[in-house]
UniProtKB/TrEMBL annotation:
The keyword Signal applies. It comes from Aquimixticola soesokkakensis. Residues 1-24 form the signal peptide. This is Tetratricopeptide repeat protein. The keyword Nucleotide-binding does not apply. TPR repeats lie at residues 172-205. Pfam families: TPR_16, TPR_6. Keywords: Signal, TPR repeat. Transmembrane segments: none annotated.
Length: 285
């Protein structure tokens, strides 16, 4: 009798241990799954900010194929494709995402950006029109401004640019775009102000420096603006100013600026040298 009781107790203990072992294994599996999701989420963020967009595309393509139901991986793939300059492929992915119940207004904005990059301005405008006016983000208004610009709706463009500037702490890019819009309209003074503003937010934005020189040159201001620049940048800006002067008909000033550009550049400045040679040959003829 004692033996049978002991046997029953042992069996009960074995069952209990087995159950404990099973629960422990399940807990470990769940923990591992949670850790993997966290790790994958962190890796996705890293890949999206990677300097090599092709590498990010490869990662999200593999991840999406492994887990086709995860919309966050599809978003990562679409964003990476856009960044890699593969806008047509990105558009296809964004359209798939927008067909799901998890689609957001942010997805519609990203589709609009991919469409703009692909040069399909009309469809980009339609995509933006589907977003309610209550959804107010920097990216949305930046794209709205660009679309209004393409339609030559200047008043709307200015309003959207102004709103976009107010929604970011890094407005250098949108200020540069706004300045270029003013430049294309012939409003050189306003363009100059906007390019100068862009540079105050990003002193390394050479595009804005070059555009600033173009705006000044169009007004007959042939001296370089007081902004930080490297020696190579100074030469490039002198070259831009020279071409602007020549275009305005101020050939003598343009020739002098070309010579300054060639002398300033730390290496041989082929483009400026060719322009100067062509100018002198034209004068001789």
């Amino acid at each position: 009798m004692r033996h049978s009781k002991i046997l029953m107790l042992c069996l009960a203990g074995m069952v209990s241990l087995s159950a404990c072992g099973k629960n422990a294994t399940d807990d470990v599996k769940r923990a591992k799954t949670s850790v993997n999701v966290i790790d994958e989420s962190g890796l996705s963020d890293i890949m999206l900010s990677a300097t090599d967009p092709e590498e990010a595309v490869s990662y999200f393509e593999r991840a999406s194929q492994s887990e086709p139901d995860r919309i966050d991986l599809k978003r990562g793939l679409a964003l990476s494709l856009t960044k890699a300059g593969k806008s047509v492929q990105a558009i296809s992915i964004w359209q798939q995402i927008l067909e799901t119940s998890d689609a957001t207004n942010s997805d519609r904005v990203n589709l609009a950006e991919a469409l703009i990059r692909a040069g399909d301005w009309d469809k980009a405008e339609l995509a933006l029109n589907e977003i309610p006016p209550t959804y107010e983000t920097f990216q949305r208004y930046r794209l709205e401004a660009m679309v209004a610009d393409s339609d030559k709706e200047w008043q709307k463009a200015d309003s959207f640019y102004e709103t976009a500037v107010g929604l970011t702490t890094k407005p250098s890019g949108v200020l540069n775009n706004w300045g270029y819009s003013k430049l294309s309209r012939g409003d050189y003074r306003e363009a100059e102000k906007l390019f100068a503003q862009a540079i105050t937010y990003d002193p390394y934005l050479f595009t804005a420096k070059n555009n600033l020189v173009l705006a000044r040159g169009a007004q007959g201001k042939y001296d370089l603006p007081v902004v930080d620049m490297t020696q190579s940048e100074r030469a490039e800006l002198l070259y831009t100013l020279a071409l602007s002067a020549i275009k305005q008909g101020d050939v003598t000033i343009g020739r002098g600026l070309l010579q300054d550009a060639i002398e300033t550049h730390p290496q041989h400045f082929e483009a400026a040298a060719r322009s100067l040679a062509a100018l002198e040959a034209n004068v001789v003829n």
